[in-house]
Amino acid sequence: MISAVARTMAILEELSEEPSGITVSKLVERLKCEKSIVSRILSTLTDADYVIRDPATSTYRIGLRFAGMALRHLDSTGTSDLCQPLLQDVANKTGELVQLLIVQNDQMIYVAKAEGKQRVRVLSLVGRVAALHASAAGKVWLASLPEERALAIVLKQGMKKFTQNSVTTVDALRAELARARRAGFAIVEQEMFEDASSVAVPIRGRQGDRVVGAVVLSGPSYRLPKKRMTNLVPILRELADKLSDVANLDFQVESIGSGIMERKQRLA
């Protein structure tokens, strides 16, 4: 039986994906839940200012009070103070979006970002779980694992076809991981989003025995041909080394990841 708390978190999860707002009927359709229950939960969240209702459109969206809780949590871990300046420095140098992911419970989560100054940008994925088979960060982490385990993790998550370039077969993924393993970095070209490409390098723990995260640089494909992405790898490796040394991600992974994954697991 699904608890009221689980339903509430499921609603908040859907709202987090809809910054412009979502109707009650759409939430009912997605969650397969009774309208009266959804309406009652939304009413409680609205009264507490965690959710905002737009009377003109009858849509609901996340309120600043809820967003503030997430920001305070990240701030308490030291991520903002330690990681943000390093990410921003690379974003300023390259002009592109730079994001930090951490590994937790066989998943990768986008936990921080820095925007470049280019006018045309790609979508930030902070707060989301990476699609391992279609993301540069996912591939660079999977490449660090024994092949059997990597494939088991991907097959459990699924290999959704996001674009015509998405890798959707085990054999194709094996080849991609072998390339990433040899190179020490991974590149994806229009696999997750049309006209967007990314390059990622791993972040290793202080002992160097495991990959605890990744840094990924993303942008429109016309600005990031494969040659430019390859040329940017040394900058990203330097960033990854600094993040590992300065931010102590062996600790941060447990602290940040646990908070995010606890919420994800309650929705399953």
Describe this structure in words.
- Mean pLDDT is 84; it is low at 251-268.
- A hairpin with a 4-residue loop joins β2 (51-54) and β3.
- This protein folds into two domains: 4-62, Arc Repressor Mutant, subunit A; 74-263, Beta-Lactamase, CATH 3.30.450.40.
- The radius of gyration is 19 Å and the shape is globular.
- Helices cover 51% and strands 18% of the residues.
- It starts with a helix and ends with a helix.
- The strands form two sheets. The chain has a five-stranded antiparallel sheet with strand order 5-4-8-7-6.
- It has helices spanning 4-16, 24-31, 35-47, 64-77, 79-94, 136-142, 147-157, 170-183, 226-246, 249-267, and strands spanning 22-23, 51-54, 59-62, 97-104, 107-114, 186-189, 196-204, 211-220.
- By secondary structure, it is α+β, with helices and mostly antiparallel strands.
- It contains ten helices and eight strands.
